[in-house]
Every structure is written in C-alpha cells, then in structure tokens.
Amino acid sequence: MSANGEPSLTASVVGGSGFTGGELLRLLYQHPEFEVTQATSRSYANKTVGHQHPNLRGMDLRFSSPEDLDSVDVLFAATPHGVSMEHIDEFQDAAGTVVDLSADFRLDTEEQYDEWYDGHDRPELLEQSEYALPELNRENLEGADLIASGGCNATATIMGLLPLFEEGILSGDEQIVVDVKVGSSEGGAGGGEASSHPERSGVVRPYAPTGHRHEAEIQQFLGADVSFTVHAVEMIRGASATCHVFPDGPVSKGDLWGAYREQYEDEPFVELVAGGGGVYRYPEPKAVAGTNKAEVGFELDPANKRLVVFSAIDNMMKGSAGQAVHAANVALGLDETAGLDFAGLHPVGSP
Amino acid sequence: MSANGEPSLTASVVGGSGFTGGELLRLLYQHPEFEVTQATSRSYANKTVGHQHPNLRGMDLRFSSPEDLDSVDVLFAATPHGVSMEHIDEFQDAAGTVVDLSADFRLDTEEQYDEWYDGHDRPELLEQSEYALPELNRENLEGADLIASGGCNATATIMGLLPLFEEGILSGDEQIVVDVKVGSSEGGAGGGEASSHPERSGVVRPYAPTGHRHEAEIQQFLGADVSFTVHAVEMIRGASATCHVFPDGPVSKGDLWGAYREQYEDEPFVELVAGGGGVYRYPEPKAVAGTNKAEVGFELDPANKRLVVFSAIDNMMKGSAGQAVHAANVALGLDETAGLDFAGLHPVGSP
Amino acid sequence: MSANGEPSLTASVVGGSGFTGGELLRLLYQHPEFEVTQATSRSYANKTVGHQHPNLRGMDLRFSSPEDLDSVDVLFAATPHGVSMEHIDEFQDAAGTVVDLSADFRLDTEEQYDEWYDGHDRPELLEQSEYALPELNRENLEGADLIASGGCNATATIMGLLPLFEEGILSGDEQIVVDVKVGSSEGGAGGGEASSHPERSGVVRPYAPTGHRHEAEIQQFLGADVSFTVHAVEMIRGASATCHVFPDGPVSKGDLWGAYREQYEDEPFVELVAGGGGVYRYPEPKAVAGTNKAEVGFELDPANKRLVVFSAIDNMMKGSAGQAVHAANVALGLDETAGLDFAGLHPVGSP
Amino acid sequence: MSANGEPSLTASVVGGSGFTGGELLRLLYQHPEFEVTQATSRSYANKTVGHQHPNLRGMDLRFSSPEDLDSVDVLFAATPHGVSMEHIDEFQDAAGTVVDLSADFRLDTEEQYDEWYDGHDRPELLEQSEYALPELNRENLEGADLIASGGCNATATIMGLLPLFEEGILSGDEQIVVDVKVGSSEGGAGGGEASSHPERSGVVRPYAPTGHRHEAEIQQFLGADVSFTVHAVEMIRGASATCHVFPDGPVSKGDLWGAYREQYEDEPFVELVAGGGGVYRYPEPKAVAGTNKAEVGFELDPANKRLVVFSAIDNMMKGSAGQAVHAANVALGLDETAGLDFAGLHPVGSP
Questions:
Q1: pLDDT digits (tens, 9 = 90+) for C146-202
Q2: Phi, psi values for residue D180, rounded to 5°
Q3: Which residues of B touch A3 (CB under 8 A)?
Q4: Reduced to 3 states, what is the DSSP secondary structure of residue D337?
Q5: Where are the alpha helices (DSSP H) in D184-252?
Q6: Is the residue at A36 inside a domain?
Q7: What element of type H or E holds D29?
Q8: Are residues D274 and D206 in the same domain?
Q9: What CATH number should be reported for the domain holding residue D258?
Q10: Which of A222, B197, C101, C252 is the most exposed place for a label (fewest CB within 10 A)?
Q11: pTM
C-alpha cells in the first residue's frame, strides 16, 4: 500500500497498531520508495489500519496476524521489549533488512542486558546488529541487515552532547547531569491509571528519577557516565534533554559554535538554535513536532563554569519511527531524507 | 525558494509573518509546482522567515517590504480584513492569479458588506471574485484570476450541511443551530490579555455568542439562515462544527449515508466518519490537524426528530492556507492535491 | 476525621476512592459540621485516602471495606450506577440521611428507568427519594432522608433554562438545542484507551451525540424535550451547557435580566455573567473550577429569533460532590454554604 | 471587605489587578482575621475586583488609585520590581507591617542588587527587611515590620535543598544543578507574543537558561552556588525544582528520611513524598495547585553518587501570595495556617 507512484521496495511493520507502528505506517505510506505490504497486530487483526490510526483512514490496508510474515525488502519491528529477540529468526527469514525499534539489539554485550534489562535470549546477534543514530554512525548502517534504532531519550541526549566529546570539550570524567522532559506518547498506547487523562494532564512528574535504561545507551556511545533523570510533562510528542556539564577548562561561545557546526553543519535533520531573536530561541519539542529534526543549542554559565546544552526531538519521529526510516534509507542506499521532509507546523500546541 | 526540484510556477505571500502567512509559506515551499519568490512583512522586513516560523528555519528567504511586489504567477494575500480591498490593484498588477485569504472578496454584494462588515471599497470587483470552497464550486475556480478563499468556520459548517441541501433533506426553512468550537490560532498572531496563555488556557469560552460574520458566507452559499455560535476551546488549530437540524420528514441512516457519499465519495480531502468502532468514531479536529482534510459525520436523534452533523477541519489548513492552495491548484490546472498530501499525526495533542 | 474543631455530625462516604468520592472527602474533611468516620473502597481497603487522592495526604483515614458500614448521621454514596439501588437497605440502616450521587434515585418512575436505563430494582423507593438541585427544590430537601443528587450535565442545563420556564419565556413546545462540553473527570477514575492521555488530550469529541441519559432528568424537571449533545473537550473539570432556544414571542435583554435575577438574585451559588467588560464576559467552566458555583448568562440573537443561554459548572462540585453536600446542608438544617465557600482560582488552566 | 464574620485586622493590596494581587485578595477575603479595605490598581481604578478576577465577583470592592493609601494594619505590595523601593515610605506610612512580594527587599546588600538587578534606591532599608520563607526563618518574622516574601523559584529550590545543608549532607562546595520547570503565571498578567496562547502552549522552553535572578536569593540563604536553569512548561500555576547534587560521602535513604523529617516533620505546609505507591509518588505541582503546600521528596542514584531532590509548589501560593500571608500571620501573631487551609483538588489538570 503506497500513496505514491512506483515504489521500488517492499516493507512491512510488525506491531502496527501501537503508536510507533502507526507512525512507521504513515511514513512508509508516503515514502517514495516503499510499498507497505503488511502491518501486523495480534489484537486488531482484520481491522483496517485506520481503525487504530485515524490519520491513516485513507490507507487501504488491514492488520494481519503476526504469525504469517510476508517476504519483504525491509521489516520494521515496533514491538515491546523482548519480542524482537524472541522472533528475530522469523523476522530475518522474512526480510533482508530488519530494523528493530525496541531496545533488544541496541547494546553491545550480554552483560549490559544483564545489568540494565533481564538478560538477552540471543546474545550472539548483538555483534551483528548496528545501533542507528545516523548522525553518529551512518557509515556502519550502509548495507546493515540488522539495525537497532536508537532510543528516544538517548537520542536527544547523545545529539546534544556528542559534539562536546568529539571536539574534546568533554573527556568523560566530568560531572554530567541530564534532565529530560518527555510527552505521554513515550508510554505507548496502553496505559493504566497513571496515564489516564485526568491523572496525566498538566503534570511535571518525575517518572524515572534515576536508573532509566537509556543511560546504558548513552554510556555506550559517549563513553561517559551521565546522571539521568526523566520527567513526564504536558505534551504528547516530544523529548527535550537539558544537559548540564562542567568542562575542565574555559570554553567560549565561539568554541561551542565551532564544535556544533563542525558536527552538524551538513546534517539534514539537525538545526542549531542558540539564542538569537524571536520567540523560539532555544531548542523546543513543539518546533520539531511531527518532523525528523533535532534542534540543538547551548548557553554558557560562566559564573558556575557550566555549559547548558539543550536538545529537542519528537520522540515518535527522530526518537523512533523517523530515525528507523532514516536508518533504512541509509542501509538501502536511498536518499537519506526520503519520506522524512515534513517541515512541522507553526503554531502548534502540545504536540 | 523551493524545497523541490523544478517548480513550474512562481508564488508570493503578502502578509507572511502571520500564522496564515506562515502556513502558506510552508505549503508552497514543499509544493512540487511552486517556487516562493517573495514573502512580505512590514514588521519583520529583512528577518528570515524562520525568525517568525521556527518550522521554516530551513527556508532561505527573508521578508521584504510589501511596498514592492514581485511579478509572480500567483499571489496569496494573508492580510487582515480590509487590506486586500485597498491593495487589490497592486496585487493584480503583480500576479495573474490572486488568492485572497481574508473576507474581503467572499460575499457577493456591497449590501452584504454594509450589513456584516464596514462596507466595501471596491464593490465592482465582487462579481469578478470566486469564493473558494472547491468541494462546492471547483468548476468556477478553473482559470479564475481573483479567488476568495472560504472562511474557517464557514467552511466547517458548509461542509457539514451541504449534502443535506443538495439531497433535499433540508430546504432552508428549518431551524438550524450551528455550535462551533475553535482553537486559538483563529485569533491570529497578535493577541492581548484574553489570548494570553494564562487567561486563554483551558477555556470553554463563548467568544462569538451571536452575530459572527461567517454567518453571512454560510447564508450566501447554503441559501438558509443558521443560528450560529462560536466557542473558544483549548486547542491551537481546529474548528469543529456541530449542526443540529430538524428535517421536516423522516430521515434514515441510509438516506444520510446516501447523501454524504453522493457528495463526498470522490473528494480527496473529505473523510466520512460516522460511528463505527475504535476511539475516533466521529469527526474530530485533532484527527485532521496539519492536514487539508475535512472529516464529516452525523447521528440520528429520532426522539427529537433531529439530525446532528459533525464536521472537523484544521482552521489553518482546510480553513485557510490549505484551502487557498487547493483553490490555486484548481485555478492553475495543477493536480488538486499537489502539496497537500500530509496525512496528519497519531497520536497528537491539542494540535 | 475532621480538619476542624468540633463537628456536630458524623458522615461516611461509600465509594471513596473514585473522583467523586475523593471530592466528597475533601469537602467533608474541611466542613465545619461534619466529621468523616468512614470511607469505603473495595479495591483500596486499608490504604490511606491520600494514596488515591494526593490532596488528602494530611487526612488521617484509611479506606475500609464496604461490607461493614458505620452508623453515621449522613452517608454519601459515590458508587457507579446500580450499586445504590442494590445496597440501599444497608445504606439506610447505617444512616438517617442517605445522599446518593448516582442516577439510581433521580427519576420518578420505573418506566423512566426502563426507557433510559436497565430498569430499577427498588421502584417503590422512587417516590420517597428527593432529587437535589437545591436552587430548584430546596423546600423538598429539608428533612429528606433519601436524596438523589442531580447529574452534572443535567444540572448545568437546568440551571441555564429554568428561569425561562419559570418566567414563561418558554412553554416547553419550542425547539431547544443543548450543546454541552465536558471535561475528562466525567468519565471517572477508570478509563481505557479512549481516555488515555495521548488519545484524550486536545479533543473536541462528540462523546454522546444523541441519547445521553441526562436528557431524562432534564425532561422530568423542565417538562420539556431537549435535543441534547455532549462533547468531550480538553479540560479535566467542568461542564458547560450552551442552550439555543427559540421563544415564540419577542424577548428583550431586560426581560432576560428580569427572569434570571428573579430566579437567582439571592442564590449563594449562582453568578449571572452576561456581557460586560474584561476577559470573562460569559459563563466559563474555568472561572468556577473547584467551586460550587454555577455561572449563568445569555445573549440575544434577534436575526434568528434565538436566545443563547450559557451555563458553566465544575462537574465534580456543583455537578456532583458539591451539590450533594449542599443538599445535605439543607436536609440537616445547616447553613447552606457550610463547607462550600472556596472562591476558585485566577488564573487557572484547564482546571 | 471580608467574607467572614469579625476580622480583627485591616489589610490592603497595592497592585491588586495582577495575578499575585488577585491571589492576595482571594486569600485575605476568606481569611478569618483580615478585612480588606483597599485594593489599588492604576489601570483599573473604579472597576470591581471581579472585573479582573472572575473568582472574586462576589467581593464587593473596587480598585482605587494607588495615590491615596488607606491606613491599615498590614499592606501587601504586589507590584513589579522597582516599585516598592520607590514607594516604600508611603507604604510604611500607611501600614505598621508591610509585606513586599517583589524582589526589592529580598537581598541583604546593595552590592547584590548591583550585581543581579539595577542597583537599589534605598539600600539603608535592606538591613531592616526580613526575607520570608517561614520554614527557614519564622523566628525573624515575628513582629517584623518590613517583610520581603521569598521568590517562587528560590522557594522551591531552598525548600528542597535546605535539609541537606542543615544536616551536613552538603557543605556548599559540591556541584549543585537545579533544573526548574514553571508555569505561565510566573510571567504575570501582561504578556506579549511569546506568552500568547498559540506560542506558549505545550512548550518545554528554556526561558532562563542561565543567570536567573533567583540564584542570588538561593546563594544568600543556602550559602552555596547553584547552577540554575528554568524551563517554561505547559502549566499555568506551579514551580517544580529538580536538584541534582553530589555529596562527598555515602548517603543512605535512612539518612535522607532523617534529614527531611527533622526539618519538616512539624511544618504545616510541607509534605514529604518520596516513592511509595499510587500515581503520585514524588512531588508534583498539580498536587499542590491552589494550596500553600510544598511537596518535597528525593531519590538516590548510587551509580552516579547522586541525590535527586524534587520540590513542587504553586508559584502563586507558596511561591508568592500564600507565602506572604503566611509571613503576615507569623509577623502579627496569628495562627500560621489561618486563611491557608485549602487542601487542593484531585483530579485537576494543568493547574
């Protein structure tokens, strides 16, 4: 099922009824190179995709059972933690390229899964899989056949801090505090009492005060410990990371602009937003809602010898489905931005 | 300035710093057939368009003064009421096709402007201009050189009620109550105390209890009086019209499905949503946020011999900028849906 | 458990863990004449009331099982529809005065329950019970021993329309359309997918397009049919009724002020808000959030021979718990406003 | 003007039309010991207080010009920074006790005002004034005649960190990062483009990335530097401080409970909320909206040798008007909690 003329590749989505699955379907449906041939859902088999995702009412596709997977060029798995590692053989039988949006193949070693999750069923595959944060490691993604799309909060954090490490402004021994604010879509489509509208609305709620699992991804890729705290705020989409760091030596605004431009100047999905005029002077999730963009910015605090780095993404896009499609574009040799060019809306509310 | 390869037509936006102007710029920038050569703003001349519209930071264009208009194929005017009628000659000198998004050319006669507005400076042009609600009158728009894009609340209402008139279920003598709920972007980018965030948030506020000017458009096109009331609710984008009507004779669900399918079955921007399963069972603004779609649905109330018709649009899109681009597509012989294929987001908040 | 010095009466709340139960506990805890001796909850027995209701952390009371009811002066039942009619004998054994907040004893006849609900187990008690909307019928409440507190949407509607009937501006034969907008707390503390934060946020959702059960209460008390439609909007607390009516004869603003002043001038919980200056010119739910007040106002639409009446309440207060305490105050001969004097907040958000 | 029987003291509010002024009026109106005799407003002189504050429509008081101040027992000044220092003589002539809610008398020395503000007109009074954060220094407030009510973000921060200093867990040499999230009422009743509803809704916006003036208050009272960053989030009322601290030695949960209980066990306006069950497990602004309470809690992060302390207040109450009334209660020898016993609401939205 494609909204476009003549796509060149077939794609399927396992776990298509959840929020991330729906976002994948939307992106693939309007992608110039993909034709969606299958979307699976155990609970909604035989319902149209529009039954779950009102924005996809125009898409003529019904969910099918995950038991019977079509052969496709690329399979996207948008399933809860643990499902992909259990079904990875079926996924790889069905598709030459598998993009997993869960955490199942993000970490490098079984030991990390023992520490941060409940172990791993298929540790021998961890070496094969490629973590996907294309701005970080697109060279590894070309031709990759098992891709682990980076986590939302980790992506926001890594995007913010990476240039400081790359340019030697941070070495990894400094104190790094990351205070993240996220929207309710991070909790997925289920949800009990805490995510009911009356209880969840308007919160500033410490939902992962310490010990959030994305710390493991961040450590792995930055090679540094971060003190990580996540708050739920009033927003549906969006993750905003504020990184408070204390470099050893003096750092100027010019140093920072240099470091961030060096890293991101040519990146199609990164905007540097640091001061300037107007209403939107630093990164904000609502400015990137619905897009695959990351906004990154910073401010100096000389009195406290501190840098504050701000990073904002749409957790459903750059934090999951958009990043996965971006990675698939790279893996399959397509234009990186194919299907990901939506500019976002202004004005827009709690996105 | 175009995000695409080789656009065939040039376009400009007069009044580009406002909300509607920004939405036009976004649509035209990503439109396959238009290149934006100019966006004017008196207040922000020489600032980048991204200064006002953070979603357009990637667009390499600065506002220019409205004094000096480029020659273009199509000029869109997104200016407050009264500006277009004053500058219409300049607009028509600059462009073969002028699409006005204000109310200045929507009504047919000077008398209507005397009654509902403060008269009209150029009444001789009213006959020349074509009201644009393409689902209603696309045949008039082909080749039109002065187009008055339909108003947001009028569009939502007319889209909901039109099939009942076309199919003879309503004659125009019946009692028609239209209760509209709108978002804060209808108030535009200015805003005083009443539209400040602390005062405007969370309201259900009767902002036009009676006498809203869009009544005139509705009367003109439906040929019937409507009792019209507009409430501001917590939403940025969106207009939702609930039409309570009392047909003279009995009406069945089958009659209604017949009437609405007849009218809208082949329309690319209309979705019929009336009952069924899932969470989204009737039209809702958030299901169409960011898109040019109208959702239309209905329910029977036999006990009260009433029909309730629901209609939902994004006031910035189907209610203004999207409708204007749709009309321009028709006027210039382009694919009707060109540049307007964004499917919308799920989930999405107060859009 | 009382926050005050020496209360004179004991009270209990059956169903204390739900939203309405929590609101009752808050009101009774700070009420000068009541001591709360028991709050029941099957699911949360032995948990503190503050476990469910964070605003009541200071209250030293634990939920007990509903099996074993204390003897009290007044028992408030905040249980789902059907529970009170099943347990009414136990309730009446435990307390001389029973105030039921469900719909179980609101209607007069078994036939009405057959039509609007699933029949009634104890129809012989319907005659004994008194519907409580004190502004309507406080004289019946004095000394009443079984009180059925009026429903939220019905209360908003009746408060708006009553003066028109009392003063003969409406006779009951006219077309009456009532378009109600409500917050998510009306759905109670449970909630599935439709009331999860990502799906419920920012909606204008027709949730009871036709056939809402509160129509029965309104018909019963106004003696007129109303065409009733309820929308869910972005709000936690609040119900706003917009009543569109078409009187037979001419009506002036003076007539309306006369009718509404006559009815409400001396009412401690009613504010007339109709035009005037400032930001808050008509009734708004957020202006009464947390209070037992109803705001009522109106506007004339001479062109359509229409009156529009606006009415706004907090559905948790004037629409349930506050109204129940108000009724108990009257029944027990206390000061009507005792425990209900909170003025509300400004500014306040989606309340 | 008092809602109560026989108040013993007279009070006035200078700057009564702003948000903080309105909150003071509400509190004083329902306070058992105060009669409000005057509320001033230059812009709204002769309008009723209900014109600006819809919750105060029942209060029979009109704004008067600030030129002519009544003699009262206590005058509250809710004016912008700089006004109180200019008019302090008039204030002190009018009232034996002046409570200033601005920053004009919070800091100890002229040097601090030179560094953080634009100097000070009346530095000789700085020694006379008492900073009011009653949990910190109530002993200084008894009988004080010039009181500087603590700032909202400073109050949230100090409330969170104070026990760590008092108990020696922090010495002041450690790295302290404070990441604050605040609602839009902090910006006051004015507001330009950035605080218009469409632009301000749904934000996570770094509005004071570094250099916020409340750092000065915090430094002064904790005797330690803090790295302070403030974000605007979707909320009207509320300030939430997340303090990330790195003690030199090991700290256990027991140590923390000990420190916080020692400090706050007997405080009527402080709730310790740290883990436990239910939905509300850490401090949250919406749980204290409308109240004078501060919620304080903490969590250990042994992997990073970090403590995270959470603190939540209503910026309009414990962060300004409530704190001011609390301080006046202490200064005048009244019951500390008089007029401040509202428990808050559940559920409640973006408060």
A1: 999 999 999 999 999 999 999 999 999 999 999 999 999 998 776 688 999 999 999
A2: -105, 140
A3: 341, 343
A4: coil
A5: 197-200, 214-222
A6: yes
A7: helix D19-29
A8: yes
A9: 3.30.360.10
A10: C252
A11: 0.97
